[in-house]
Amino acid sequence: MENSVLGHLMALERGGMGQQDQHDSQRLEMLKARAVTLRAKRDQIKQQTDVVKILKDKISKDLPLEDDAAAAGGFIEQQKSMLTAWRMQLKDLQRAHHLIGGYELVECKEGKSVCVSFHTAFEGVYLETYNMELDLTRTVQISRHNIPPSFPLESFAKQNLQKDFKAFLQTLSQNLNALAARRRQVCLLKELVGSVEVMESNQLCNILVLMCTAQSETPKAVLCTLEYGDLSQCLPTRVSIDCCIWFLISYEHVDLESAAMTLKHINSVFRSVRFPGFEFQSHSVT
Amino acid sequence: MEQKYEEEIQMLQQEIEMLEAEQEETLRSIFIEHGDRLQHELKSVFEGRGGAQKPTLSKLITEVRELEKDLRRQTEINGIALNECFVKTLHKSERKLVQQLRLAGHCSVLLFQVEFAVTEIQEGDALLRRVTELNIVVDGVEFKDFSAFVSRVEDTKDLLLFFRTLRTFSERCEERRQTFQHFQEKYPDVVSLPEGCRSELMIIRSPQLPGISMTIFWKIDVSMEGVVKPSLELLLKMPDQAREFDTKKVMENGSNYFQSLLQILGVEASIEGLIRTVCL
Asked: Is residue B265 part of a domain?
């Protein structure tokens, strides 16, 4: 009985290994095929690279590109390389326009509409891109876009869209960048400055209420309201500081002098232009 | 057996990446070093010399023509013309790309040269891109008071702000140039532009009234945040003898009067008004 069970088990084992073998050989075939494809690709690219190198060599030595020695096929390859070099430059130029914040105007629907993109960035960090499709059939009309609804798009369109398309694009770019910058500043504030808490903000980020805490033996805080009156800018037009907030009352002794020092510090900081660079650090005010 | 294939595949993939990068760099270097010759040779390619064009070539040519057309469109709508564009790829992997770019071009008549480095990192769905170095050189008589803005932009790496501001600045400069040129052509005896039509100075003088001159300073100020603000000022000069007759204190109040005039009539009408006062 042992024998037959063992025998049975062994037979099963052999059967299983057979499956494994099949599995293995399938995988082997796959790898072999992939290696062959890659080898072919590598050879093709190597050949192209060689042609390009020969072209470069001829050009730098000021040799004529058409010579009797060059077989017709070789000459076509050369022309292909030259075109490829020019195409590379054109694509680089396209990318450059993209990186410097170009509008990337694209014609769609056989010229019946155009699409533009508004790239935003703040201090070197690229942020959101907003897109818009404009219908050109009779008058210029905005048909689709992904600009937030709180943004005064209609009023800008009313101002400029029909009269001066470029001015419309410029105004939008300016204001969208300011919006993205204000939003980013709020993020940076939250991330980088520990002693500041964002109490309130809105979609357009043009009102910001911050609670700034100064660490000392008795923690003090001031409430700071920033109003951004000019939506095309990312600096506040009005800053009001309120230090009579409820929890100051809970402290026996409100140190007016240190509150005043805090205010002075905040004021001088806003007068200097670099908003996200400042630090509302604890001031050991004495 | 399997392992050998796996190793070969990895090696081939690396080789392909390297060859592609090499090809890219060589193609770019042909353009950088021999752009003129390349353009010259390309002319004959486009004209279809050298026998019948194979289908592969005509496909490439169509693609290239499309790209050229698109670039013309971008140049037109962006108001920025790029004459030079050199790209160097410092690092390229699946998730990260680091490139250095050198651009030169012009925005209307204002020339610029910009060198910057950009890093792109793919994090999931999002592409994080940032400018890590920025150097700007601007050339032109208009850029007298531009350097504070340029230094600030270089510090903050705000490439997009630079080009946005450059566009607006160039529009204001163009308005100034056209206005100055218009008045010089219309009143050549009275209006002079001692520093050229691209400068900020215009002098109004009548040959019949020697010693009396009105100088208009049309400054275009650019703040550190890139706010472009034109401002006009008037400077009056009168010989000392004439001052005796200045009972209405025009010399003292002239520049203020001019500011009021600007607010009511606008720039062109105000300047025209001034010019007419000396055209007796």
From this structure: yes
Residue B138 domain flag: no
Q: Is B101 exposed, middle or buried (0-12, 13-18, 19+ CB in 10 A)?
A: buried
- Per cent of chain A over pLDDT 70 is 76
Q: Which of B26, B37, B130 sits opposite A124 (nearest CB)?
A: B130
Whether B83 maps to a domain, the answer reads no
Residue B20: which domain range? Answer: 1-39
- Tell me the ipTM for this assembly: 0.88
Q: How far is A184 from chain B (nearest CA, A)?
A: 14
A195-251 pLDDT per residue, tens: 777 778 888 888 888 877 766 655 667 777 888 888 888 877 777 777 654 444 434
Name every residue whose Cβ is closer than 8 Å to that of residue B203 and which is 6 or more positions away in sequence. Answer: B191, B192, B193, B194, B213, B214, B215, B216
Kindly determine whether residue B103 and residue A103, on different chains, have CB atoms separated by under 8 Å.
Answer: no
What residue spans of A100-202 are helical by DSSP H? 153-156, 165-192
Q: Backbone phi, then psi, for B146, in 5-degree steps? A: -90, -15
Q: Which of B35, B73, B130 has the CB atom closest to A125's CB atom?
A: B130
Nearest 5 degrees, angle CA B129-CA B131-CA B134?
165
Question: Is B230 part of a structural domain of the chain?
Answer: yes
The C-alpha atoms of residue A231 and residue A173 are separated, in whole angstroms, by 12
Chain A's closest residue to B58, CA to CA, is A80
Distance CA B262, CA B228 (A): 18
Rg from Cα positions in chain A: 34
Per-residue DSSP letter, B29 = H
Please say if the pLDDT value at position B124 is more than 80. yes
- Chain segment A150-209, per-residue pLDDT in tens: 999 999 999 889 889 999 999 999 999 999 998 888 888 777 766 777 778 888 888 888
A chain contacts of residue B134, beta-carbon cutoff 8 Å: 124
Domain total in chain B: 2
> What three-state secondary structure class fits A274?
coil
Q: What global pTM score does this model have?
A: 0.81
For B24, which residue in chain A has the nearest alpha carbon? A88
Residue of B nearest to A39 (CA): B12
The single-letter code of the amino acid at B84 is E
User: What are the backbone angles phi and psi of residue B214, rounded to the nearest 5°?
Assistant: -120, 120
Residue whose token pair is 């294939």:
B5
pLDDT the model gives residue A71: 57
A32, A76, A86: residue with CB nearest B64: A86
- The single residue listed with the structure tokens 């001034």 is B274
Q: Which residue in chain A has the smallest CA separation from B21?
A: A49
Task: Give me the domains of chain A, ranges plus CATH numbers.
Answer: 99-178 (3.30.457.50), 186-270 (no CATH)
Subunit contact A38:B132, Cβ cutoff 8 A = no
Backbone φ and ψ for B86, nearest 5 degrees, come out as -110, 130
Measuring CA to CA, which residue among A177, A157, A178 is closest to residue A231?
A178
Question: Which residues are paired to B23 by β-bridges?
Answer: none
